[in-house]
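--- STAGE predict ---
source: upstream dedup step, 1 unique chain passed
mode: sequence only
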Amino acid sequence: AHHAAAVGRGGRRPALTITDPERDFLAVSPGGDGDDTSIMLRHALRSVVVIAAAATLVAGLMPAPTLAVSPRVRIASDAELAQGNGHLVVVRETGAKRHAFEQLRVPPGTEHAAAAAAALGRGVVAVLPDVPVTIDAYPATAPSDPFYAIYQGDLGQIGVPSAWLHTTGSTGVTVAVLDTGAALGHEDLQGAHLAGSWNEVATLEDDITPNPAFRTSAVPDGDGHGTHTAGTIAATADNGRGIAGVAPGVSVQIVKVLGDDGRGYFSWFCNGIEWAIAHGADVISMSIGANSTAAAVAPWEYATDDAYAAGVSVVAAAGNDGGSATSYPASYPHVISVASVNGASAHSTFSQANADVDISAPGESILSTAIASPISYTWMSGTSMATPHVAGVIALMRSARPDLGPDAIEQLVEATAVDLGAAGRDDLYGHGLVDAGAALDAAAGYGSPTPTPTVAPTPTPTVAPTASPAPTPTPTVAPTASPAPTPTPAPTPTPAPPAPVATVVAPTSSVAVRTVVPTFAFDRPVRPGLTIAVSKVLSGGSTLVAGAVTLAPDRMRAWFAPGAGAFDACATFRAVLDGVAAQDGPAAAPVSVAWRTPCDPPKITSRTPAAGSRGFDRDKNIAITFALAVRGVSAKTIYVRNAASGRLIRARVSVVGRRVIVNPTVRLAARTKYRVYVTSGVRAPDGRRAKATSWVFITGRR
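--- STAGE serialize ---
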């Protein structure tokens, strides 16, 4: 500021000169008649505020500064820098042979000068736009077809059950999920093996300066996208609670690089990648992308190259714009670009198709963990949903063969894919649909040397002396006896093949969440035509539940897809499997399983008098109706007090089913305010407690 004032007074234009390009400071010296006034901007890149000020000074006071920038520093073009709208990222080499990504905020329009100034810092290799990014858009509502509510639909489609014959994943293999965070308290994520978490999202104190102090290991997900992708990879399997992840046995890192609005910056992602590398990630899953030029999104390339150099497999979404535009980071080298297909393995119309697509996976109407509650699930669609399928398969491969690096993994994934569309690789499907079973089979035998058999030497035979032959005696011929008749053996009966054995996979206990999918497994492939009848058990009989039966492609599992909301709370259900038979054999006996859904906490549906009502008849009883039958009701758990004095009103409390009656033993006072209390002592049939509540009313004159 002093320098600017001096320049203004003297009327001279300053010239920007570099005092020492090897040091972290700039010298801004006024040109002209020997004035030695200078301002040293020390440690320029250690303070984004200083750099922003320098950029403003340069832009406002100098028409065209000339900077001695090292030719090895990569600076984006003016048009590309402008895409950041004042947000730049400075890429700096670190001592660990990786990169750090520093945010730089400057007034829009000054990007060029700021980039040129920032390029002079020690270790700087690039100054690029920090372009905003968001998660790929996806439909948030559940589809009407109940088939899409089945978690095994997408897993069976890519052969995950066959892959599980090798492994369900090792905790020694870590998948980093870079997304909006995750609801780690979800019932299907609580059992996941957490290998660390990091929140890279920087809270901006003044919309200019990021404060790293706000970064933490807490990774709350206010959007739901990250919880969904994490569930696809690592949700606990075979626990009767919702879904199964592709690789439920692996460890996961949750790295929050997008805010709760689903937005962020490239620098957040790049630093998230570097954190994952430093903390032992083997696979990085990124369900995000941006359509742009390679130069405009170049920060990612430094980070993904660092991951590749560290032996980490990186998987990213191909994009959801439906055209042929390239999307980054998926289109970078060393990144596996994942397109989406539907349940019939047809190309999803929203999935981008270009020369960088490597592989396809299910991405339409995928059911996974949600943030609405610890027992909630939701359907999402997009290449964001396809990506964690491939990341999970790669995690299984790394579990079976931890010695395989990124190149071998990608080669095996592509070589074993099920070819779709045009023969060979194409822009729609890449190399085809990922095949987890085939990939695990190939990984198990990849690079195994064929043992060379040891040839034993042939022994030299010892020649024994030839003995003189003895004379052949003349045989005595005995009379030939009449042969006894040979009995004809009875044919051995061929045993009939046994009936298939069916076991219950879900639910696994007598109490199951309302999203449970009744599932059965078989010890051998079975014929189509089996039935699963699900009914709600009532006191006077039962009523059928609407839904659809699906047999897995390998015919080793079958499940019942209920309609939306079919399993209501606090009810008993029964599923009966019938008509199970192998290809050539008898049918198995029916198999049934019964379970009860948890009750919701007691909820009041109506109350008399209503909250805030006036003129309540003093001779009437107070009535409270709950959504379900309740227990634990007494004068201690539901009572009335005078709101002014706090005096307890004696009353008889009774309950019939869902309705509670409070009958005061003395008449209420006229024109007086009373408060009704319902405590947490009121419980649902399964013991869930009510949320304590109260309300007031005023009596009338009579």
